[in-house]
């Protein structure tokens, strides 16, 4: 196992990294399409369409494609996004679950005094509830959603903001994610990055984005960022 020295801060993606949230997202997206009389969407489709935030997910659902139809009616897109937000909120995220090893691993980093942050493209309004629901809110010193700043991943804006806020050199921060957006953002911020194989990456292997380290299981992070025993 490759060990990275000198990590003082860890930033985590949320969906597909800490949380298997596709069942709830797919349900809300499918209800939205039904109300609008559009073609329904499946869990399998939504799994390959998430990662760029809710607006693009809904655009892909309306387009039935990873590539959003450039001729999509903006008013329809707005209505669909409002419906999606409502259904996603009303569902209470009851079908989302933490991946194996997530809670124990976060607790170990927290115990070791390593500050952590969430950097997700999910709309910020949904994030605190999800963290609280799964008992991991207290582990994060910063929670950044997809609309917290003007730019979201793969732009490095949020990671650079964290580096600046916490007075860190880029070599002292690790980004952990499951999507090429996470890898690209980390590389643009000159941070180390771990890519997880089990998440949502548009149907592509995460290794194709060339993260510094590829892991199959979240708990292996304690080997990458060695904790003092």
Automatic annotation (TrEMBL):
Keywords: Carbohydrate metabolism, Hydrolase, Magnesium, Metal-binding. Its cofactor is Mg(2+). GO terms for molecular function: metal ion binding; phosphoglycolate phosphatase activity. GO terms for cellular component: cytosol. Coiled coil: none annotated. The active site is at 13 (nucleophile). It comes from the Bacteria. It holds the Pfam family HAD_2. It catalyses: 2-phosphoglycolate + H2O = glycolate + phosphate. Its EC number is 3.1.3.18. InterPro entries: HAD-like_hydrolase_sf (IPR050155), HAD-like_sf (IPR036412), HAD-SF_hydro_IA (IPR006439), HAD_2 (IPR041492), HAD_sf (IPR023214), PGP-like_dom2 (IPR023198), PGPase_prok (IPR037512). GO terms for biological process: carbohydrate metabolic process; DNA repair; glycolate biosynthetic process. Mg(2+) binds at residues 13, 15, 178. Pathway: Organic acid metabolism; glycolate biosynthesis; glycolate from 2-phosphoglycolate: step 1/1. NCBIfam families: HAD-SF-IA-v1, HAD-SF-IA-v3, PGP_bact, PRK13222.1-2. Specifically catalyzes the dephosphorylation of 2-phosphoglycolate. Is involved in the dissimilation of the intracellular 2-phosphoglycolate formed during the DNA repair of 3'-phosphoglycolate ends, a major class of DNA lesions induced by oxidative stress. Belongs to the HAD-like hydrolase superfamily. CbbY/CbbZ/Gph/YieH family. This is Phosphoglycolate phosphatase.
